[in-house]
Amino acid sequence: MRPSLRDDVGKKVRAFYEDYSFPGYEDFDTPLDLVEKAKRGLYARVLDEELPLGVRILDAGCGTGQLSIFLSILHRKVVGADFSEASLAKANYFRRRFDLKHVSFVRMDLFHPALAGQSFDYVFSNGVLHHTADAYGAFQNLCGLVKPGGYITIGLYNTYGRLLLDARRWIFRLTGDRLRWLDYFMRGRSMGDEKKRIWYLDQYKNPHEDKFSVADVLEWFGKNGIEYVNAVPKIRLGQRFTSSDPLFEPQPVGSRFEHLLCQLKWIFTEEREGGFFILVGRKPRPRSEF
Q1: For residue 64, which of 113, 26, 119 has the smallest C-alpha distance?
Q2: Per the CATH hierarchy, to which homologous superfamily does domain 3-161+192-262+276-289 belong?
Q3: CA quadruple 67, 72, 73, 74: dihedral, nearest 10
Q4: DSSP β-bridge partners for residue 157
Q5: Domain ranges within the chain, ordered by starting residue
Q6: Which single residue of 22, 92, 161, 164 has CA 20 to 30 Å from 202?
Q7: What is the pLDDT of residues 241-257, one digit of tens each?
Q8: Tens digit of pLDDT for each residue in 98-135?
Q9: pTM for this predicted structure
Q10: CA pair distance 251, 286, nearest whole angstrom
């Protein structure tokens, strides 16, 4: 990919998040509030239960840093990286306000990672790569930051799971954004007006968005020597991700036909989550280490 195109997309997306950094903090939020909010979600709760104390974690594309802070509370060493100064300003304000010692935030471009190679036990990048012009290139760079034996977790918009949202985006465009109640979160009561506004902009007005299939990401894993471990939602028929399912315990990958059927189901089951899916991989240790 031409660097000029990649940089042009990066500038547009960066400008968008400088204006609309998401999610925000309420004035009364404390670290305990972040823990309670995070644990309402199955994925964050499982992460907290499974990630060992003392490990080194990179949250690549951390936004305002809420997941980074949550994971750092139990003495894990977390680096949150993002290219948005506005998002990092919110993250750092909260960190300083509560004197949080185990999390730090850095401004970083995924195409020029300013961090030591093979220095993290876990690398997370959720909801980030699909807003770049070269998601695979950014993934390759993140793989270089994972220690041998470490894990990389990638969350992306799904080609199939995003179809209903794409249909709503088309309707909103035709109606001048007058039918926002068609979105589940816009008619819900769980978010305040400002958070709803930023959710809507992030989901429907982002200047750049790509979508990917399970097969795409598994191909990325294969090209970079990453072993498939697990998925959220599951990519095998008849399976469902629960709190008792170990996220970092290797699972059978299944067949391409199973993956297709699961993704077709996601059109209806994952559309409230923005058609979002996560794959977990592991970088194997060199044979000499065994």
Answers
A1: 26
A2: Vaccinia Virus protein VP39 (3.40.50.150)
A3: 120
A4: 276
A5: 3-161+192-262+276-289
A6: 92
A7: 888 889 999 999 999 99
A8: 999 999 999 999 999 989 999 999 999 999 999 999 99
A9: 0.94
A10: 21
